[in-house]
Amino acid sequence: MIFQTEQQLEEYGDKLPEDKKAPIKEALDELKAAYETKEIEKIDPALEKLNTVWTAASEEMYKAQADGQDGQPGQDPGAGAESEADTSDVEDVDFEEVK
Predict the structure, then answer these.
(1) What residues make up the domain containing 37?
(2) What pLDDT was estimated at residue 74?
(3) What is the largest CA-CA distance in the chain?
(4) pTM for this predicted structure
């Protein structure tokens, strides 16, 4: 979980606002410290805290991404599906099952 969170912070860190990134880093540091002590009673709450703050940040990123897509002018949401269906060459073929 520590490694995965570090990778996600590196990958998505520029998309996260600072007020969401700081609690993730804090929870990550807490989890690292708990992991070093190898005490389960410290690891579990730290892991839960990290999951909670990461979920809140993910929701915010998802909302921002959804708002950005909805706000694109001149784009009909169904236009892409129709043009794709018109250009595809689907052909029914006969087949024989060989045993």
Answers:
(1) 2-67
(2) 44
(3) 65
(4) 0.55
The whole-angstrom distance between residue 71's C-alpha and the CA centroid of its chain comes to 21
Residues 6+ apart with CB under 8 A from 32: 2
Residue 56 falls within a domain, yes or no?
yes
Q: Which two structure tokens, joined as six digits, stand for 1? A: 């979980």
Q: What pLDDT score was predicted for residue 62?
A: 78
> Which positions of the chain have pLDDT values less than 50?
71-84
Q: What is the pLDDT of residue 11?
A: 81
24 occurs within a structural domain: yes
* Amino acid present at 56: A
26: its two tokens: 């804090």
| Dist. CA 35–CA 41, nearest whole Å | 10
**How many Cα atoms within 13 Å fall on the side-chain side of residue 67?**
6
Q: What is the pLDDT of residue 70?
A: 53
Nearest to 2 by CA among 54, 39, 41, 69: 54
In a domain, 89, yes or no: no
pLDDT of residue 73: 47
